[in-house]
Amino acid sequence: MNAQIISIGSELAGGQTVDTNAAWLARQLAMLGIQCSKHVTIADELVPIRDSIVSVSREADLLLITGGLGPTPDDLTRTALAEAMGVRLRFHQVSFARIEAFFKARKRRMHADNRNQAMFPESAEPIENGCGTAPGIYARLNDADIFCLPGVPYEMKAMFEQSVRPRFSDDVRQQTILHQTLRTFGMSEAEVGDKLSDLMRRDRNPNVGTSAADLVISVRFHARGSSESEASELIDRDAAEIRRRLGKVVFGESEDTLADAVARLLIERRQTLSTAESCTGGLLAKRLTDVSGASSYLIQGIVAYANEAKRDLLQIPMDLIETHGAVSAQVAEAMAVNCRRLSATDYALAVTGIAGPTGATPGKPVGLVYIALAAPVETVVKELRLGENLTRTQIRDRTAKIALNLLRLQLIGHS
Q1: d(C-alpha 341, C-alpha 64), whole Å
Q2: Cα(33)–Cα(23) distance, rounded to whole angstroms?
Q3: 235 backbone dihedrals φ, ψ, rounded to 5°
Q4: Residue whose C-alpha is closest to residue 9's, from 43, 58, 54
Q5: What is the DSSP string of 12-62?
Q6: Mean pLDDT of 201-210
């Protein structure tokens, strides 16, 4: 069964509101064994909504529509559906009575425009809304089942669970679709794609693909099976093969961050960490403390932004800073070594750099960063040339990720 989702709302199309409904619905359909092939977002305009309904009803077996069921003039879903079906809207007394009861139960006055929510295309069926005033609509067009649900997320979810899911649970569970994601760092998307090229054929099951976001490459795959266990076996098989091929660059699954990966390793080894930050301004410590249980391994984080702070908090000699500059391999190393000693931790990460857009010199451009990792055996210093084209936020973000990955590799024995 092939499904598509239409999300309606000018606030969605214009970017003022993020559409979370479509993602949630697609996941629910996958658990029913229904593949969603397309998400469409349309502003509150009658003709585009109508034309999209007609088009999708010819392509898909199932169409889910969210939004546009309110009482105001810009709520056009019911009118667009009626025009797509070539029928008129009719008043549904039972639905109107439920809307009236909703307001009476809350001792609120009902506006006259709420009567619009009891209008339905002829031959369509109301879907009761137990959480709000907007009934849903069920209809058929060009052999497609169409379900119109409110845009309010909690109303939409409740109505899907109560009125949509039961219609398909028994009919379409000939297969189950499961999803998995592996997260990687340290290899470009092109390199990942090259190593997995045979697994990424469009005709394979599982279907494998990649996506990139701020240096993190996600390998996403979904498997179809006649049962959940069969799909799970396919997922596990490909996950093991992908881990084998990509090796140390795989740091986690699902929505794992590099901080999550580092936290797991430190907790597992019962080891501790401290941080000394200049250009990242505490971002490393912030990301580490985003992980629950950080108090068991993160002892302290020092933000030593000014040279005087480096001297006073980290005991960096001023002559070292004056000789090499605050942004230098020598100062980064001293920051890490002294932070580890002063904090009495197993490891210490230190960062100093030029995040821009100001502060650059002819020999030290924006994007120049030094990361130092002080470990029990040695201290490693890494120079980064992140580029002057990046924003301050991007430079700080990438620096924090590369620093965390440097520690992760040390912890797994791949420094």
Answers
A1: 60
A2: 15
A3: -60, -50
A4: 43
A5: HHTTSS---HHHHHHHHHHHTT-EEEEEEEE-S-HHHHHHHHHHHHHH-SE
A6: 91
**Is the domain of 118 the same as that of 245?**
no
**Do 279 and 360 form a contact (C-beta atoms < 8 A)?**
no
The closest alpha carbon to 336, from 364, 378, 298, 369, belongs to 378
What does pTM read for this prediction?
Answer: 0.75
- Paired tokens of 71: 């009482």
DSSP state of 114: G
Q: pLDDT (tens digit, 9 = 90+) per residue, 255-312?
A: 999 999 999 999 999 999 999 999 999 999 999 999 999 999 999 999 999 999 999 9
Question: pLDDT tens-digit profile of 78-121?
Answer: 999 999 999 999 999 999 999 999 899 888 888 998 899 999 99
Instruction: Look up the domain containing 89 and give its range.
Output: 2-169
Rg from Cα positions in the chain: 28
Are residues 235 and 288 both part of a single domain?
A: no
